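dude i think i finally got it to work??
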Amino acid sequence: MSTPFFITGLPRSRTAWFAIATSTDRSVCHHEPHYGDFETAAELWAMQSRYEFVGIADAGLGMHLRRILDEVGPRTLIIDRGPMAVAGSLRKYMGLSEQRLGPGWYPALLARLEVLGAALAVEHSLIKRVAFDDLTDVDTLRACFDWLMPGCKPLNLVQLMHMNIQSDLGYNLAKLSRFRDLSAT
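look at this
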């Protein structure tokens, strides 16, 4: 059976980058399989796999963090990035504006990011936290990989550090509406 791992944080916290970087000859990491759906994630972790380590990198699944820890028990990396920084990144990347989304969208987004942030404020022996701003340090990244997949080294880490890996803009705009729905529950 494969060893599960989980990478989460608020949106725009490099989960897509981590999904690529943690996929090696001994591991695979799925990025946002059916964004935020616990049942899909649990099925992926339970599936027979040729990989020693099977991971999921998903901001939306953070809403289910306690359940994931209790029922699956993966080593978990939480990338700490504050709601204001995330909202600013979303605004810049997606070209979000009052004209595009209507009045009041920004305070509503911040409120939902706060809800997800509160869900991530769990202390557990299976959780390692890393500050978003520290992800530019190669030793910090190596420690994250060693935590998630002991003995499994990422390929070309130094080169990957300088790559801007992110999901498609249209995909992210659609996901934003689902994120609003998930966070309201």
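The mean pLDDT is 85.
im so relieved honestly
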